[in-house]
Amino acid sequence: MKNSISIALIIYLGMLNMQAQSKMDNSDGILDKTEFKVGYFGNLFWNNGLSVGAEYLWKENSKIKERRKGQKKITHQFLWNGNLGFTTNFATKTDTGVFTNYGFIWRRTNTKGKQISIELNPLGYYRSFLPETYEVKGEQVDKVSFPGRSYYAPSISVGLGKLRKGKKLTGRYINLNLMFRTPYNAGTLPSISLQYGYRFNFKKKK
After folding, report:
1. What's the pTM value of the predicted model, to 2 decimals?
2. What number is the average pLDDT over the span 91-109?
3. In sequence order, what are the beta bridge partners of 126?
């Protein structure tokens, strides 16, 4: 557990250093290169919730290829990523949690604005909350305050999206997310969730 957290912190500090360097090298404002996002997070059946986040554009490369039907432009983006969210079973309240994670995204956009992406978040944290819980010590029964557990929770997502050029609502996305909560009992608990939402920018893009 300690080794996993140390590795994640080293990766995150390295990301912050590179992000700071990219800001120095680029004259664009932070808001010009930052998109915010909000959407559904859950598995549609027993756990549902909400996630919000932000993406900061680190690097972008475009290639134009000549085709018989005209030019084809392919853009590759590398972005820093951060998310905050919650998920719960609204019926039983037996599996409620909040999470936050940080990492990076690779995204490919074609001429028509269709996107595919891979999101890797090596630095993640998940806090579960249990319903009313009591503990027994001998003959004494006490109510537990804020029952639940904390986990190291890295995640990976694969997704599709659509770019909306020149709009403050810059696009929509749908991702399949795999999160690993550890240590969970004697091992790791993987959980699969669906993410669907929209990205937006406070400044209208060209």
Report:
1. 0.77
2. 89
3. 99, 151
For residue 56, CA distances in Å to 32, 103, 201 come to 9, 11, 11
Task: Tell me what pLDDT residue 171 has.
Answer: 93
Q: How far apart are CA 53 and CA 144, in angstroms?
A: 32
In whole angstroms, what is the distance from residue 192 CA to residue 176 CA?
7
Q: What confidence tens digit (pLDDT) does each residue in 20-71 have?
A: 554 444 445 788 889 999 999 998 888 899 999 999 999 999 988 777 777 7
Amino acid at position 113, single letter: G
User: What Rg, from alpha-carbon coordinates, does the chain have?
Assistant: 20
The closest of 176, 181, 172, 144 to 159, measured between CA atoms, is 176
Choose among 25, 80, 91: nearest CA to 54.
80
Span 116-138, pLDDT tens digits: 999 999 999 999 887 666 566 76
| Long-range contacts of 191-195, Cβ-Cβ distance < 8 Å, separation of 24 or more | 191/43, 192/43, 193/41, 193/42, 193/43, 193/47, 193/87, 194/40, 194/41, 194/42, 194/43, 194/44, 195/39, 195/40, 195/41, 195/51, 195/157, 195/159
* Phi/psi of residue 48, nearest 5 degrees: -140, 150
